[in-house]
Amino acid sequence: MLGILVFILVLSILVLVHELGHFFVAKRAGILVEEFGFGIPPRIFGKKIGETIYSINLFPFGGFVRLHGENSEDEVKNVKRAFITQSKKVRTAIICAGVSMNFILAIFAFAAVYTFSGIPKDTGEVKIIEVQDAGPAKSSGFKAGDVIVEVGNVKVYTSDEFVSEVNKYLDSEASFLVKREDDNQNIALSAIPRKNPPKGEGALGVIVSNVDVYYPPVWQRPFLGIYFGFKEALFWTGIIISGLFSMIKGLAGGIVPKDVAGPVGIYALTSQAASLGIFYLINFVGVLSVNLAILNILPIPALDGGRLLFVFIESVVGKKVVPKVENFIHTVGMALLLLLLLAITFNDIKRLIEAGSIAKFLESVMQ
Predict the structure, then answer these.
(1) For the chain, percent of residues with pLDDT exceeding 70
(2) One domain, residues 144 and 72
(3) DSSP string, 186-203
(4) Distance CA 281, CA 266 (A)
(5) 27 lies in the same domain as 79
(6) How many CA atoms lie within 13 A of 14 on its CB side?
(7) Which of 209, 116, 215, 115 has the alpha carbon at shortest distance from 161?
(8) Does 158 lie in the same domain as 66?
(9) DSSP 3-state assignment of 310?
(10) CB-neighbour burial class of residue 51 (10 A; exposed 0-12, middle 13-18, buried 19+)
């Protein structure tokens, strides 16, 4: 049960932060916000404060903002304060506000982790963090804490350089100059990197890093945390966009993506992150928030990107798409997205069954 509560809390934070972006920018623009709701209707409780109803709804997943005249001019009673009658600039700002808030949430989530867990620093040394069992490194005498100075007489200073050099010796003997942590002495070792290592392992069977963690003065940490949090958000943005392009390319070639997670998969990942500790969970919230921002800005009907697309069409054509037509397209888009979500959910369950972990999943839900 705790896992379910954490999952609902995480999902609600992500969606509510997104909707708060729409809410604040709409209020700032003078648009009438008819309702700000927590959860998905039907409504359980609602209280009108000023001109806005603040409601709690039956299904506790995220929330929504209902703007006056959001979908049709027919429902407009106050022309000056309706969303649909606003300028393209105002509508664009409101539409993009949710995505912006998710990106900001990701930055602060990553910043919190860096602030309390330490700031990364490039050491200029490739250090072995872990030597995996049954790998070439283990049998060749490599130890955790060793610093790789050279691979085949080529000096290496980063993990990428190390991997690149090791890959030149697949299934053939490579020489290594290693600085041992115990006595700070350089020793020569040799190993045969594997061409086809087991899944999740590298050719040599080691985990290396050229990054260390340091703790600057307390007053500096939040500022450095935000700086590195911003870089982390950009890093995940690149990873997610690259993944989307790969998925689209695969679909064009008739390959169905296997690594897309739906609600069940996200629940399982959230529970795993929570079990590892609060900072793992916060970091995962940051990753999910970047995901939500990017997915929402895609030009798909019913999403923010879909609404932005219609504003763009209006700019090109010189007049608005008929509101009823746009609303119909968004409705169809939402129906297709729900069907896709259902299909992904079935795939999540199928993967859990095939992995033999469906019992663990059900057990975690009931706890």
Answers:
(1) 88
(2) no
(3) EEEEEE---SSPPTT--S
(4) 12
(5) yes
(6) 26
(7) 209
(8) no
(9) helix
(10) exposed
Q: How far is CA 236 from CA 11, 60, 106, 288, in A?
A: 19, 28, 10, 10
Domain shared by 176 and 280, yes or no: no
286 and 306 in a single domain? The answer is: yes
In a domain, 358, yes or no: yes
Number of domains observed in the structure of the chain:
2
Range(s) of the domain holding residue 324: 2-116+258-366
pTM of the entire structure? 0.81
CA distances from 183 to 123, 179, 180 (A): 19, 8, 6
11 and 110 part of one domain: yes
The angle at the Cα of 166, spanning 161 to 167, to the nearest 5 degrees, equals: 100
Number of H helices, E strands in the chain: 10, 8
CATH code at 142? 2.30.42.10
Q: Looking at the structure, tell me whether residues 111 and 129 fall in a common domain.
A: no
CA-to-CA separations, 357 to 50, 263, 265, 280, 364, in angstroms, rounded: 50, 16, 12, 22, 11
> Residue 27: left (phi > 0), alpha (psi -120 to 50), or beta?
alpha
Tell me if 252 is assigned to some domain. no
Residue type, 320: K
Q: What is the tens place of the pLDDT at every residue in 11-59?
A: 889 989 999 999 999 999 999 999 999 888 889 999 999 999 999 988 7
Instruction: Give the residue carrying structure tokens 């923010």.
Output: 304
